[in-house]
Amino acid sequence: MARFQQKQNKSRKKRQNLTIREQTQCRFCRDGKSYIDYKDLDTLQKLLTNRGKIFSRKRSGNCAGCQRKVKTAIKRARFMALLPYTN
């Protein structure tokens, strides 16, 4: 019984020492862009791998809304032959 109580006390101490991480904004929210242009190839290429795949939200640092806008912009640029589908 005493061992069980010691383990609980240790876990409580660990929870108290956790720090709250500051939220960072994605590059588009920081600039205040409401529309991501499919003709802006320099920005879109930074969000693609060298094989032409779109980086994930976690890797690119975009928020969910901006990631959806990026996805549609990249797909439009591919359709207009501004970006390759694969490399």
Overview features:
5 helices; 30s Ribosomal Protein S18; single chain; mainly alpha; 87 residues; 0% strand; elongated
Protein described:
By secondary structure, the chain is an all-alpha fold. It has a domain at 26-79: Irregular (30s Ribosomal Protein S18). It is built from five helices and no strands. The chain has helices at 2-17, 27-31, 41-46, 57-60, 64-79. It is elongated, with a radius of gyration of 21 Å. The termini are far apart.
Any idea what the radius of gyration is?
A: 21 Å
Q: What is the CATH architecture assignment of the domain at 26-79? A: Irregular
**CATH homologous superfamily title of the domain at 26-79:** Ribosomal protein S18
Per DSSP, the total helix count is: 5
Beta-strand percentage?
under 5%
The geometry reads as elongated
CATH class of the domain at 26-79: Few Secondary Structures
Largest sheet entry? none
What is the strand tally?
Answer: 0
- Unreliable parts: none
**CATH T-level topology of the domain at 26-79:** 30s Ribosomal Protein S18
SSE run: HHHHH
Ends: how far apart?
Answer: 62 Å
Mean pLDDT: 85
Level of helix content? 40-55%
Structural class: mainly alpha
Task: Describe, in short, the structure shown.
With 87 residues, the chain is an all-alpha fold. The protein contains five helices and no strands. The protein has a domain at 26-79: Irregular (30s Ribosomal Protein S18), CATH 4.10.640.
